[in-house]
Amino acid sequence: MAPQTDNAPRVLISDKLSPAAADIFTDRGIDADYLPNLGKDKDALTAAIDGYDGIAIRSATKLTQSVLRGVERLKVIGRAGIGVDNVDVPVASAKGIIVMNTPFGNSITTAEHAISMMMALARQIPEADRSTQAGKWEKNRFMGVELTGKTLGLIGCGNIGAIVADRARGLRMKVIAFDPFLSEERAIEIGVEKVELDALIARADLISLHTPLTDQTRNILSADTLARTKPGVRIVNCARGGLIDEAALKEALESGHVAGAALDVFAEEPANDNPLFGVPNLVCTPHLGAATREAQEKVALQIAEQMADYLLTGAVSNALNMPSISAEEAPKLKPFVKLAESLGSFAGQLTESGIKGVRLEYEGEVAQMNLKALTAAALTGVMRPLLQDVNMVSAPILARERGIRVEEVMREQRGAYENYIRLTVMTERQERSVAGTVFSDGRPRIIQIKGIALEAEFSPHMLYTTNEDKPGVIGGLGTIFANAGVNIATFHLGRDEPGGNAISLVAVDAAVPEDVLGAVRALPMVQQAKPLAF
Q: For the chain, which has fewer Cβ within 10 Å, the N-terminal or C-terminal residue?
């Protein structure tokens, strides 16, 4: 335990981090208490946490709503690693607690573990080891397969996926990848063939997952997709539990359709009991993807530096719930950061094909502001619906890794609005634009969608529709919502010309139920209906 210094910030290290992290805190005048087992004791952690300005954790400490509910002093949570599944980020945000992570410190280590799992799987090394040490010498039993010449399918090709692709190409494998954010140019640069998910499922000899767990990726390897894989496929998951339907994988392994699986992550962890355990041709490790001395040292030092910078100077980096903005510019820039992120989120939630580019047009006074922060906020909004663990620091890097072109255009005021931001997402199929402004009340507003004028505030739950400009659409929507007991807060409309294309943006008090969404989509003149969340 560090000696107490008057008025010095205090930090609790509640998981096993490199001792060098504590040294960084103390060297910079911060009192650091290294209590690596405290995170496992929920009651003790809850009692102690509000005695600190910051807490540095790995995955063992669970900062749930009940743990954070009573805190008043805590200012920053630092996660040494990328995943923040063990932190209730909305609760932390509501209390003004910054949540930081280290998004790139584990990349090489995790990629190497995935390659190791492929090799172990291909040559049945774990089972052969157990057999040999039991004195059986079953040489003819363990007939493996070569990786050379095989097709590796990557589901997700960000930083870690690209490293896996590089190592796999060194093993003379052919690499194909499915990633909505991977551009054709970036795919060529890293030597992979970009494909759709169905093509990857049909062609891959081995499948390795490197994508976050989101609503879109949950059970991406389901009973249906597993049934459509090549007979004898091998599957590796060193990304996140929940990407594979474990019950379906068990059946596929038992039937022999899937020749083997290597899992470092599970739907429920710690995986003390799992239906897959004991199934033939299964290799398991206890979430070791980031577990190397080099990686743990790197992320521990990085999170300590980030937390110390914030506690001593107010600098923010790699924050999941706060933009990286200096203290001087924060008050003026804050509503425009919110506008840029909301515009990006609007476009990102509507984008279903690969993104080739993002263009941001800044007009008026906003064009003289911190465009780096604004563009980073917009990219965060665009990419978060699919990637989730994205912040204003990592979003530009992730866009660059995927070959997404980012264009900024600055203009003097030439329209009716003193400040104006227009965001255009360019995909392989189309361009989609949305524009907004900040009025004197400081609230961001949408003022244009696909070139159609429409003014609306962003609300937590919204429904966006496109339709033919003909009578009956508004009444039909109102009737469906009324019959379902869904209360409409605001209803905003726009059209390009009488009888042409029309759009609506409806704010409701709660998320739109699936049956209501289906009924809206069934209306004769509705072309598209998409729920949005902000």
A: N
Active site residue 79: no
Question: Sign (positive/negative) of CA torsion 265, 268, 269, 275?
Answer: negative
Q: Is 461 a catalytic residue?
A: no
pLDDT digits (tens, 9 = 90+) for 232-259: 999 999 999 999 999 999 999 999 999 9
What's the pTM value of the predicted model, to 2 decimals?
0.72
For residues 389, 391, 394, 395, the Cα torsion angle rounded to the nearest 10 degrees is: 100
The residue from 112, 193, 251, 269 that is catalytic is 269
Q: Residue 323 and residue 186: Cα distance in Å, rounded?
A: 27
pLDDT at 413: 83
341 phi, psi to nearest 5 deg: -65, -40
Amino acid at 109: T
| Residue 505 · residue 449 · CB < 8 Å | yes
In the chain, DSSP finds a helix count (H) and a strand count (E) of 17, 22
Residue 492 annotated among the catalytic residues of the structure? no
Q: Which candidate in 287, 384, 422, 445 is catalytic?
A: 287
Going by C-alpha positions, the residue among 473, 317, 467, 482 that lies closest to residue 396 is 317
- Contact between 162 and 114 under an 8 Å Cβ cutoff? The reply is no
Calculated CA dihedral for residues 442, 399, 207, 268, nearest 10 degrees: -30
Q: Is 54:9 a contact under the CB 8 Å cutoff?
A: yes
